[in-house]
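Appendix B. Chain record.
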Amino acid sequence: MDKLFFGFLLIFVNFNLNLNGHTLNIFPDWAGYCLIYAGLNDLTEEGEHFPLAKPWCLGMAVYTGVLWLLEIFMGDTKLGIIGWVLGLAATLVSFYVSYLVIQGIADIERNRGVSLGQDGLMKVWKLYVICALAAQALVILAPLALICLIVAFVAAVIFLIRFNSTRRAYNLIAGA
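Structure tokens predicted for this chain:
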């Protein structure tokens, strides 16, 4: 569960280094997806949803890794509408991976008869998804998109805080 938490942390938190028009994400998403993939491997026996997320997570690691390398070697690459479509598709896959992880946590709760806070995670995840999608849809209306982005940011922080609580509760019952 630790690997899942730190993977989500890397995906949600971005620190960029800007040099001569090049931007480098110091905490790249591909590393977060690699951590999540490793965490899914550790939890495969805990629930049926964890293995379902693995191929999607691996695909996201490759996709975000390619983007990261392009940023390093080519700088800011503008792909226009293709970039927007690819970004939307990646966002949807990312949502699906996190949804499967949350469902995997529900599997653990059901199988072990414990509460790990899955309900709270799902509620804040839904808020995050709605606001993130609304921000992309409302990109033409900048003030509304900004409000959605701010709410999505707050939801992402709350998600990480709740996931950390879930991680700690799981570590107590798993003896980690």
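Further analysis of this model is presented in Appendix C.
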